[in-house]
Amino acid sequence: MKQIAKITSAAVVGLDAQLVEVEVDISSGLPRFTIVGLPDTAVQESKERVSSAVKNSDAKPPRESHRLTVNLAPADLKKEGPAYDLPIALGFLLASGQIDFDSNDKIIVGELALDGKLRHTNGILPIALTAKELGISTLIVPKANAKEASLVRGLKVIAASTLEELMAHLEERALIKPTPTANIRDFQEKHPYYKFDLAYIRGQHHAKRALEIAAAGGHNVLFTGPPGSGKTLLARAMPSILPKINMEEALEITKIYSIAGRLPKEKPLIVSRPFRSPHHTASGVAMVGGGTWPKPGEISLAHRGVLFLDEFPEFHRDVLENLRQPLEDGIITVSRAQGSITFPANFTLVAAMNPCPCGFHNDPEKHCSCSTAQISRYKKKVSGPIVDRIDLHSDVPRPKYEKLAEEVVAEESSAVRIKIGKARKIQKQRFKNEKIFTNSEMDIKQIKKYCPVDNKTQILLRQAVDQMHLSARIYHKLLKVGRTIADLADQKNIEHDNIQEALNYRPREEND
């Protein structure tokens, strides 16, 4: 009988995985089951799950006659979750001589049920990608995770339903066929259905154009208008005009959802851009991520998609202030006493708000009941630095009856999506060596390189900066928005009219 066994497992840290060596030692003495290596409560509780699962798989459980010590190395890395159940169980069976197999070149992860069945486990995709990068040939996972693990080419995935079935496979008594590598095209929707279409939004041409520019360049947009004017409808139509995601983006999004435990079991690869719409009562942790064991928040779940914040000023001020870093850098760093974890958060912000508490400030037909102080206080709920980070500001007035009743169907989302797709292809070619995808991601160096303007346009920009008292950030945003407008028109250079249109999407106060 072996006295010690070593099984390789993995821990998910942020969006990546790190190998964990599960060492199992059996020694003489009174029966005891000890787990060391900074385990959390879920890992500690694996003692009970492992004991019951081993017993119900026709093997001798650890607690009956063994002094068992399990070490999860490296010891200074905190371990969380039930994914270590399976490697601990196999390590015990190997150390106690109840099974015999070669544990080298294998990563093993999985949660055990008391009857020995293997349950779905979070974070399998980043573990599979790490196995591929490190040259490890075999990944053993629960059957419920088979499709997710099979997304990684060149990796042998063994998916088992029960501990007993896996024991038979490892001893070569009844082999499990490796899961075939998934064909990415099988998950793509040939004709995706969108509940909301721009064609059925009456009027609002200025707001629709803002949405088109935002989708083409990944720019943030704020809609302001009275209740019922169509702000929410416009935001919910955004996914219908966004271009399809590429494989790199799909894997990024899927990793986030896998770690957060949000990945649908029947859909192991997310092939549509996320649309997240948290309620205005959402906490800071829910929005940006965090917790004792940091998990991605709403802004990371919206990565490469849309984050819609309705009733924008009603969000807690500290929650909105947390958006500063991701709106600027496309990432969010969650810091805790034990260290910092960075999650991606490159989303397009679509926000909607009323012009005042009652909603009818500057409405030509309805009387506003708010005082000047109330209106000022309401608008100040959204700080200047946050407003500064929003590229496009559009008023959404209440539509007239004639617009609501007309039978003429406006331009469909599918037609707009084609135009946006062409603009995105231009950007893809432009940034092929830059590690970015859209115009909104450009830094100052890239703006100088890709956003040159002629003398006439420079005069317009100078006048705008001086007369409207624009910050350096807004100046650069004007150039980026102008670059997107030029791309939509298939123009090589930014022209005077492009910047003029970009200026039309600055807040009214700046234009006054």
Explain this structure to me?
The structure is a single chain. The N and C termini lie far apart (84 Å). This protein is elongated. With 512 residues, the protein is of the alpha/beta class. Helices cover 36% and strands 17% of the residues. The protein has a five-stranded parallel beta sheet with strand order 11-14-17-10-18. A four-stranded mixed beta sheet has the order 1-2-4-3. It has helices at residues 41-44, 46-55, 85-95, 124-133, 146-149, 163-170, 205-217, 231-236, 247-260, 284-288, 298-301, 317-321, 324-329, 372-379, 384-388, 401-405, 413-430, 444-450, 455-468, 472-488, 496-503, 508-511; strands at residues 4-13, 16-27, 32-36, 67-73, 106-108, 111-112, 118-119, 138-142, 156-160, 221-224, 275-276, 289-290, 295-296, 306-309, 331-336, 339-344, 348-353, 392-395. The model has no long low-confidence stretch (mean pLDDT 91). The chain folds into two domains: 4-182, Ribosomal Protein S5, domain 2, CATH 3.30.230.10; 212-400, 3-Layer(aba) Sandwich (Rossmann fold). The chain is built from 22 helices and 18 strands. The longest helix is centred in the C-terminal third of the chain and has 18 residues, at 413-430.
